[in-house]
Amino acid sequence: MGMRCSLVELDKDQIDKLLADPENVFEYLDELEENEEVGGVCLDKAWHGIHFLLTGSAWEGEEPLCYLVKGGEWIGHEGEDVRLLRTDQIADWANALSTISDDDLRKRYDPVAMAKADIYAMIWDRIDEEPGNLEYLLAYYETLRSFLEKTKKENKWAIIFIA
């Protein structure tokens, strides 16, 4: 199964409800999903590789490029990686990614460095899989960019979590 990163867009009313009871963040998101009241994306296991391509780091980086692994407001139970990104953070992130092309990421792709940095899912130095790995990252990068542009346009907040 593994660790997957998901982002869910929420409007102000949904955020207010969530923040009234942040300990039950997953229950609330399940309820919204059941009622088809939210949109979101799953970046599968590509999240850490995308972060590395954007920041050159395993766990650090400047905002807003680091938002896949840090930044925003922590919510929920201690030990859960659930963060809330405000509308201004979503806009900043979307704007930053709009300036980074697939070709830019191709130039940054270094499977040996990714393997040395223990970038999840630890597949980057498998020679037989290497050609498909970059395309996998680029496909999910486009998913992320599209989600952020849509969320920015709709002036929504987002929850990001790795589970």
Describe the structure.
- The protein is of the alpha+beta class and 163 residues long.
- It has one domain: Hypothetical protein yfbM fold (3-Layer(aba) Sandwich).
- Helix content is 47%, strand content 13%.
- The chain is built from seven helices and five strands; from the N terminus they run E-H-H-E-H-E-E-H-H-H-H-E.
- It has a five-stranded antiparallel sheet, sandwiched between helices.
- A hairpin with a 7-residue loop joins strand 3 and strand 4.
- It is globular.
The first-level CATH class name: Alpha Beta
Assess the beta-strand content as a share of residues: 5-15%
Number of beta-strand segments: 5
The CATH level-2 architecture is identified as: 3-Layer(aba) Sandwich
- Average pLDDT over all residues: 92
Radius of gyration (CA) equals 16 Å
The CATH superfamily name is YfbM-like super family
Briefly say what this structure is.
This protein is of the alpha+beta class and 163 residues long. It contains seven helices and five strands; from the N terminus they run E-H-H-E-H-E-E-H-H-H-H-E.
State the main characteristics.
single chain; 163 residues; alpha+beta; Hypothetical protein yfbM fold; five-stranded antiparallel β-sheet; 7 helices; globular
